[in-house]
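Before we proceed, please read the two lines closing this message. Tell me what the token row says about the fold.
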Amino acid sequence: MSIRHLTIFLAVADCGTMSAAASHLYLSQPTVSQAIRELEQHYHGLLFERLGKKLYLTDLGQLLLAQARDLITRFTELEQQMLSQGQTATLKLGSTLTVGTCLTPSVILALEDAHPGLEVCSYVSNTAEIEQKLLRAELDAAIVEGAIQSPDLIALPIIDDCLVLAVGTRHPFYEKDCLFIHELNQQPFAMREKGSGTRWLFEEYAARHGLSIRIRWEANCPRAILNAVLYNKVLSVMSLRLMSHEIAHQKIRIFRSETEEWNRKFQLVYHKNKFLTPAIYELEKLLWQYEKVSFPAECGLLKADPVE
């Protein structure tokens, strides 16, 4: 068993077929098939079973998968460290869409100022996809607002954030100072896509309070959702950090939750087996310095329904 065998095994597990793995690795399909047979002979059992046209991991394959990924990651990091002595260091940083919009650009600037020669490569997507990329060692670290599910990832809650209900000037709620939770029932909303931490938090809130909402807009772009609120008489729940300009110019009115159910933290996330480089330590240090969010004086209040 060698690093080459494990690399081929991981490619088959990720791609789902021998042919796709061969194409991904620029190898012939017989070469890939032979490597998997050798692994199965070495471990005395099947690593994959075929259902239809796809290959699925057996219990033995699942056992090997996590360990193989960890070994390949460590080997790759060792290679990079040894081969990049005196060369430019790289940090592959993931961000969720909210974080990537309001925070990541300034974080990258501060990181590169603190570490001359550091090259930060940024990838922005929703929490679910960022989590998968961390597990596949495609990212070194990430800053996310959603809940992390995998026990193989370490999530450090660092930066305070808060969701607020956003209302445009054309919506009847704009003139109100106070709303009750039941008033959100059957209202049209602009929502983030499934897999978003923001959407997950609001859906949990809606379920707890028995709310049924109508999704009129769905987008993976915070600016698109903000424009829907500004021009299309829909509501949205999004990070206060995304709307400072619109709030200051009274284009949007916001309502904070009286019960603080929308308070959350941006988290620094990395794999539990990740070798923490000086750049990652510097990233954590920078994140601790970010200020808490503060509500504007004209902020409205979303209150619990009165008890009858």
Q: What stands out?
A: The first strand starts at residue 48 and ends at 51. The chain is about 40% helix and 25% strand.
